[in-house]
Amino acid sequence: PVVGLFVLALVVVLWVASSVCLQFVLVTDYNKPVAVSVYSTSLAAVLLLRGIPDDEVEKLPAWGPVLLLGVLWLMAQLLFNLSLLATSVTTNTAISGCGSCIFTCVLSSVVLGTPMNARVAACVTLAVMGVLCCTRFTPQATLAQGQLGVSETAGGHAMAWASALCYSCFTCASKKLLKSSVEVPHIFGRIGIICAFVGTPLVLLADLTSVEKFELPRSMPAYLLVTANALFGSMLSNLLLTMCVMMVGPLVATLGLTTTIPLSLWVESVLLHAHSFQWGYVGGAVLVTAGVALLGWETTEDQKSDGDLAEGEEISSILESRSGPRPRKLGSANDSEAGGDDL
What we know:
Layout: H1 2-28, H2 33-42, H3 54-57, H4 63-83, H5 89-112, H6 118-136, E1 140-141, H7 154-177, H8 184-208, H9 220-257, H10 260-271, E2 275-276, H11 279-323, H12 333-338
Antiparallel strand pairs: 1-2
Helix pairs in contact: 1-9, 1-10, 2-4, 2-8, 2-9, 4-7, 4-8, 5-6, 5-7, 5-10, 5-11, 6-11, 9-11
């Protein structure tokens, strides 16, 4: 458990540091969100260098489902990077956490058949109220010319919601398509190849239409930051999160990930002095954190109850198969109808 908690803390720090560094690069040095998204997601192809056991090869899905996962992953990253140009990291984190929970609950119910109840709806409502408070009391950029702070817009919020929707679709599709945790790194490597093939024409199209003129980073620090974000903030953090869930369970992992919201707020307001936050915003962040944490608790308890019930039924069937059918009581209705010879 101690190692699992350490890994969880590392994932939280990586996620927040990645968002802050990426926003810094996009705002100050390399305002090319399309190129950055394609480059970052394509680097996951290096995971194909890792071998996979022979008994797991037959469990790998075909390239068709992987194409769907790759497109969803690329769109989620692209929309997230675009939203960083018009939202603070804290607001983006709050919307992403809340939106992912809402969309994942709905999609899980529709696609995976996961039951929903009133307690889940209450948790989602609490998180939504928190996001509404955050968007109502928008933080203000405190640095001159917005070198680290950005002015928030409704378009930035919309792209953050859209990114959360794509990520939720990716999560539910992965749950339905992937059969083993051993294949996750290999699948992410395939997704990297898909992102490269799909993303390259996207970069060329953006250049031809003058939406985003293609050019390489003008400084080596910008290139290193983008590469480090791809390798550590995206690829490594997702692999570590998978390990963390296996070590400490989904409940502790979900509760731990909610600390990205207060950590982002502290980094932007205290450490970097990039934004100033009103108390209404802080209250909204608390509501989002509580809603997401309670939702993680509720869904995990439901899964645990279902697992215990299924395990109990399986044990009962095994015992019955070993001991034979239970003896009937004498004098029952069936016995009286059967006649004295049967008795």
